[in-house]
């Protein structure tokens, strides 16, 4: 685990998950508040889900960068593929 000067782990996935949960909670609260204030059906059924997707995909990486935490999901497919290739090599599959 990489350490910063302050002693907190930069690659700590638990810290990254807490930040992600915070973004999800903030997004849910913001969506509820917007739904109460703006009662249009278009907002509730079309813009609402788009709002959630945009908030989660845009704000989460921004908050992780701001906190100085590595994204645990970055390059997850490459890590999975490398693990699959390694297990195939051990079994002798090609």
Task: Spell out the blueprint of helices and strands.
Blueprint: H1 13-37, H2 41-67, H3 76-91
Structural commentary:
The chain is mainly alpha-helical. The protein has one domain. It is 72% helix and 0% strand. The protein contains 3 helices and no strands. The chain has helices at 13-37, 41-67, 76-91. Helix 1 (13-37) packs antiparallel against helix 2 (41-67). The longest helix is centred in the middle third of the chain and has 27 residues, at 41-67.
Q: How many whole angstroms does the radius of gyration measure? A: 19 Å
Q: What's the pLDDT, averaged over the residues?
A: 77
- Low-confidence parts, pLDDT < 50 over ≥5 residues? 1-7
What kind of sheet is the major sheet?
none
Helices and strands, in order, run as HHH
Q: What class would the helix/strand composition place it in?
A: mainly alpha
Rough outline: elongated
Based on DSSP secondary structure assignment, what is the total number of beta strands? 0
CA(first)-CA(last) distance: 33 Å
Helix content: over 70%
- Bin the strand percentage: under 5%
Q: Can you count the helices?
A: 3
Whole-number total of structural domains: 1
């Amino acid at each position: 685990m990489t350490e910063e000067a302050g002693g907190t782990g930069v690659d700590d996935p638990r810290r990254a998950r807490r930040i992600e949960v915070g973004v999800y909670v903030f997004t849910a609260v913001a969506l509820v508040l917007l739904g109460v204030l703006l009662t249009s059906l278009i907002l509730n059924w079309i813009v609402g889900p788009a709002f959630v997707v945009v908030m989660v995909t845009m704000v989460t990486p921004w908050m992780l960068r701001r906190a100085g935490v590595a994204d645990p999901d970055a390059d997850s497919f490459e890590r999975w593929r490398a693990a699959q290739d390694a297990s195939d090599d051990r079994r002798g599959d090609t």
